[in-house]
Specification:
The complex is a heterodimer of chains A (275) and B (339).
Chain A: H1 4-30, E1 34-35, E2 41-42, H2 48-53, H3 56-89, H4 94-102, H5 109-120, H6 125-132, H7 146-171, H8 174-182, H9 187-198, H10 200-215, H11 219-224, H12 232-240, H13 246-273
Antiparallel strand pairs in A: 1-2
Chain B: H1 2-7, E1 17-28, E2 31-42, E3 46-50, H2 57-65, E4 72-77, E5 80-81, E6 92-95, H3 107-117, H4 123-136, H5 152-164, E7 170-174, H6 182-199, E8 202-207, H7 210-216, E9 219-224, E10 227-232, H8 234-239, H9 244-250, E11 254-256, E12 259-261, E13 267-269, E14 277-288, E15 293-299, E16 304-309, E17 321-326
Parallel strand pairs in B: 3-8, 3-9, 6-7, 7-8
Antiparallel strand pairs in B: 1-2, 1-4, 4-5, 9-10, 11-12, 13-17, 14-15, 14-17, 15-16
Helix pairs in contact in B: 3-4, 3-5, 4-5
The chains are: A mainly alpha (275), B alpha+beta (339).
């Protein structure tokens, strides 16, 4: 008799096998092949694609992606911590506020990104209003640049930073902050010296949850970055479409995955050491 | 110059009054946690607020610390109102019930936390102060431990050291012994009393344990349902309670025809004595506790009465007829039963 636990595991295992491990194995296979003239890939087997990953041209995109993802994560952190702290320590309707934080998830990410584009474009609401009231004479370049990409990423991933930080702060004994104030710390210092260090696991978890999808973001840089190949996600997509270089696209994906894996391990070790 | 001070409403504090609560009331939505409470702490005094849980003693303490604002009334530290002084500017320190030690800091850093917040001291001075206070609470050698590596008693002493090192005008202790084993509680409360004498800091101590309060306090106040019922020395409160509530909260009372007598003041005899008030009774139960014997009796009018005597050779027996007697001077004062 097959044990019950196996049956519970089976659906997830099947999905993972068909939709994750199998495609991953295919990507791995493609990365060692030679590009075909109309896409696809064929023999001979080679590691040529991996060599090109470290080309200066592509390293620049890697660097750019890391910069944008780092900036987005930092902004998310600065915006999310005070909010999470406020909800955990002061707010009455905690559950309501946390639900409001997750409210954007109720609509498609694509639709929300388009909404931002309608706000930011030259003939969008912001520029029109600023021109009407006479503050500017010609539209500000709000869209199709790195700033717009960062704005879109921060907007999209902010809840992933708020939730884990809130979870750690919510468990914090409120007497600890009372104690800090009792010992002469202003509320700001109490938050900095007590709440921030004790929320470190949440901060690390939130940073991972924001940084990794930002690094691999495709939709936001594609739409809000104005179609220029700004980030890794777009580079990979480009190899599988316009450039018709599947082995190279596969190699970039795998190197990128490996890098993320290493960073995550380092972060996790750091988080465990600090507990 | 003095007249000017008086003109803006300043009063010269009595030298010995370090803390005064004047008609302090705290209302939360739907209930009044503290109701018109006034009392005064003299400098160097060990003062206890005692009462059943929910009587408002913790809220009172939190108002003194500054975590809650009184709805009405005022609090004075050394004669100055602290109404608009936030907790981090008040020179009072709290030992929290949960100790609230910072889990990410060592013993040393926990104790130095308050010193580091004021810019009065150099690093070397802070180090010296921390060393000294850790010596006082006998934690030398545990400097680099983290709170999770300490026993309950050690944590409690770190919390004490952290508050004491700031030399507060008043040290507030919120049931600091309640998390400890019953066996060590009695020892630690004695240590606490000695420590208070040694450092000379005024203690405001909160407990629901009346025996603990009587054991350590110079002065204590009994609270009930937000109101302060009676304040005084432990002996005064025990011998001259102003209400049945205080009488019964601090110890057992037999109510005999409207008169209150404590079990240890009752005597058993084979007949009535002329200089004693006596009642005929019958022995119902005997409980031997080693150093004393609890005798449950029923008086001739049917009322039950508990007598505490020193166990003696001549054995009492259940069912035996006895006389229960007491001296007039050992009667508790008369008051309305039921308050």
């Amino acid at each position: 008799m097959i044990s019950l636990s196996r049956w519970f595991r089976a659906p997830a295992e099947l999905v993972m096998l068909l939709l994750f491990y199998l495609p991953l194995a295919m990507v791995f296979g493609y990365s060692f092949l030679t590009r075909g003239a109309y896409g696809g890939a064929s023999r001979p087997v080679t590691v040529e694609a991996y060599g090109r990953v470290f080309d200066l041209l592509y390293l620049r995109i890697v660097f750019r992606s890391i910069s944008i993802a780092t900036a987005s994560t930092a902004i998310c952190l600065v915006a999310a911590f005070p909010l999470a702290f406020y909800i955990a320590r002061f707010a009455r309707a905690k559950t309501l506020l946390i639900n409001l934080v997750t409210l954007p998830f109720w609509t498609s990410f694509l639709i929300r990104t388009y909404a931002w584009m309608f706000l930011l474009r030259d003939t969008g609401l912001i520029n029109v209003v600023l021109q009407r009231i006479g503050l500017i004479s010609k539209p500000l370049p709000l869209l199709f640049n790195d700033g717009a990409v960062i704005l879109g990423l921060v907007y999209g991933y902010l809840p992933f930073m708020v939730l884990p930080i809130y979870a750690t702060l919510e468990k914090l004994d409120p007497a600890l902050l009372d104690a800090a104030e009792d010992l002469g710390a202003t509320p700001w210092v109490a938050a900095w010296k007590v709440a921030v260090p004790l929320a470190k696991p949440g901060i690390i978890a939130g940073s991972i949850l924001v940084f990794i999808p930002c690094l691999g973001a495709y939709l936001t840089p594609d739409l809000m970055g104005g179609g220029k190949t700004v980030m890794l996600g777009n580079l990979v997509q480009n190899q599988f479409t316009a450039a018709r270089d599947w082995p190279f696209g596969a190699a970039i994906s795998l190197v990128f995955m490996g890098a993320v894996f290493v960073v995550m391990r380092l972060l996790r070790n750091y988080a465990e050491d600090s507990l | 110059m003095w007249s000017k001070l008086f003109a803006v409403g300043l009063t010269i504090p009595k030298v010995n009054e370090v803390l005064e609560l004047r008609a302090v009331t705290k209302e939360f939505p739907g209930h009044r946690a503290v109701d018109d409470v006034s009392f005064v702490l003299e400098r160097g005094e060990f003062f206890s607020l005692v009462g059943p849980s929910g009587c408002g003693k913790t809220t009172t303490l939190r108002m003194v610390a500054g975590f809650e604002d009184p709805t009405s009334g005022d609090i004075f530290l050394d004669g100055l109102s602290v109404r608009d002084v936030p907790p981090y500017r008040r020179n009072v320190s709290t030992v929290f019930q949960s100790y609230a030690l910072f889990p990410h800091l060592t013993v040393t850093d926990n104790v130095a936390f308050g010193l580091a917040r004021s810019r009065k001291w150099t690093k070397a001075e802070i180090g010296a102060k921390v060393d000294r206070v850790l010596g006082t609470v006998q934690l030398t050698g545990k400097e680099s431990r983290y709170p999770r590596e300490l026993s309950g008693g050690e944590k409690q002493r770190v919390a004490l050291a952290r508050a004491l090192v700031l030399e507060p005008q008043v040290l507030l202790l919120d049931e600091p012994l309640s998390a400890l084993d019953p066996q060590v509680r009695k020892q630690i409360r004695q240590d606490l009393k000695e420590l208070q004498r040694k450092v000379g800091i005024t203690f405001l101590f909160i407990t629901h344990d009346q025996e603990e309060a009587m054991a350590v306090s110079d002065c204590m106040a009994v609270m009930r349902a937000g109101k302060l019922i009676q304040a005084g020395t432990p002996e005064t409160l025990y011998r001259q309670p102003n209400s049945a509530f205080v009488a019964e909260f601090l110890g057992e009372v037999n109510w005999i025809g409207g008169v209150g007598v404590r079990p240890e003041n009752l005597r058993l005899g084979s007949d009535g004595r002329a200089d004693w008030v006596s009642r005929e009774a019958r022995v119902e139960t005997l409980t031997f506790l080693g150093n004393r014997l609890l005798v449950g009796t029923q008086l001739s009018d049917g009322a039950h009465c508990r007598v505490e005597v020193v166990p003696s050779e001549n054995q009492l027996q259940v069912g035996q007829a006895v006389w229960v007697g007491w001296k007039k001077c050992d009667e508790l004062p008369r008051f309305e039963v039921g308050l």
